[in-house]
C-alpha cells in the first residue's frame, strides 16, 4: 500500500483508504469525488466476482458508468472451452489452445493527472495498524522484497536478459538464482502477465528452451485461475470427489472440522499416531524440523523470506499429505498465511495437484522422496546448509517418519479408496 500510494502520488492521484463493503464504499467515494465513471481490473474468485457485481449494480443504479477490464490474466477463463463446450480439466490441450492466441501489448503508464481539487477524505495508512509489532516478523521480509512496478520491471528485465537463457536447466536448483521470483509481483498486480509474456517472447530466439519453459509456467498460472473460475470452492473441496474418503488427518470435505480429528483413521503414514502426535508433526513441518534437510530448508526459507522455491514446495507438500497423512487443506492454509505470492487460485490448485485430488493432478503414486530429491536438485547440499546451519550436528532432529513405511501406507490407502485390494 505504501508503494501504491507513492506511485499514485507521482501521477497526481490520491490514494483514498476506506473500510467497509466495496458495494457501499466505492460508489460513495466516486460520488464524493464527482466522478462519472468507475473502472477497475476484473477479479475472478467467487466472492470477488459477487462483490464486483454488487459494485457495478449499485454504481449503475446511481447513474455512474461502471466497467471492469481484463488485466491480471492473459485470457478470460470463460472464453477458453473444449470442443464440447466445457471447461478444460487437462493442462496440455488447455495450453495448446491458450498459447495459440496473440495477446495484446500493455499500455504505457499514463501521464500525470491534474491534481483533484476535492479529493475524498480517507483514513491514514498508519491508522490501520497493518504491520506486526510484537514481534515484528515483517522486518526480514522488507529486506528481501521491494514492492512496486519499478522493482518488478527491473527484476523482469534482469531475468529476461540473464537467467532466462538457462531457465529450463536451472529452475529446479534451489541453491541457484535460476528462477524469476516474479510471482509476488504478478500476485499483487505490480507487473502484468502481458508484460511478462512479451518480455519473454522478445528473447525467444536467443533463449528458445528457457522461453518455452517459462511461458508454460505462465500457462499453469492461467490454468489454475481457469479451475478457480469454474470451481470457486477450490480451496476447500477436492475436485476429484472420491478423495473425500481418503483418510487424511484434518478437516473434512464439508468445511473445517467436519471430520473431527479422531473421527478419521490415522493419517496415511500408517504409524497409528494419535491426534496429538499428528498435530505435533504438522508443527514440525511448519517450523522446518522434520529431519529432512531439503524440506526443512524450504520451510525456514519460507518463514524468513515469505517465499519458497517451487521444487521444494512440491517436495514439502508431498511429505505432508502423503507421508504424514495430513490433509492438503492444512498445508494450503499455512502457505496462504506465509507466502508473499499466495493467491486464491495457484495456491489451492497446486496443493490439490500434489495431493492427487485436483485437475490434471500428479498421479497419487508419485510420492516425492525428499532424500533423493535433495541428491538430484541440491547435490552439494548448499541449499540445505544455507537454511539449516545445525545440519550434521546432534541438534538436528531425526527424520519424523519412515519414508518407505509411510509410502506403502499411503499407496495402500489409495488402493482401498479405489476399491483395489490387490
Task: Please provide a written account of the structure.
By secondary structure, this protein is mainly alpha-helical. It has three domains: 2-69, 3-Layer(aba) Sandwich (Rossmann fold); 142-229, Serine Threonine Protein Phosphatase 5, Tetratricopeptide repeat (Alpha Horseshoe); 241-418, DNA Cyclobutane Dipyrimidine Photolyase, subunit A, domain 3 (Orthogonal Bundle). It is 46% helix and 2% strand. The chain has helices at 2-10, 22-33, 46-61, 91-98, 139-144, 149-161, 167-170, 183-187, 193-201, 208-230, 275-287, 293-305, 310-323, 328-338, 346-355, 370-377, 382-387, 403-418, and strands at residues 37-41, 65-69. Helix 2 (22-33) packs parallel to helix 3, helix 12 (293-305) packs across helix 13 (310-323) and helix 13 packs across helix 15 (346-355). The protein is globular. Residues 252-271 have low confidence and may be disordered.
Strand coverage percent: under 5%
Number of domain modules: 3
Order of helices and strands: HHEHEHHHHHHHHHHHHHHH
Classification by helices and strands = mainly alpha
CATH superfamily of the largest domain: DNA Cyclobutane Dipyrimidine Photolyase, subunit A, domain 3
The total beta strand count reads: 2
Multimeric state of these chains? Answer: single chain
- Which term fits the overall shape? globular
Helix fraction?
40-55%
CATH topology grouping of the largest domain? DNA Cyclobutane Dipyrimidine Photolyase, subunit A, domain 3
Largest sheet: 2 strands, parallel
**Rg estimate, integer Å:** 23 Å
Low-confidence stretches: 252-271
pLDDT averaged residue by residue: 92
Could you give the order of strands across the largest sheet? 1-2
Structure annotation, total helices: 18
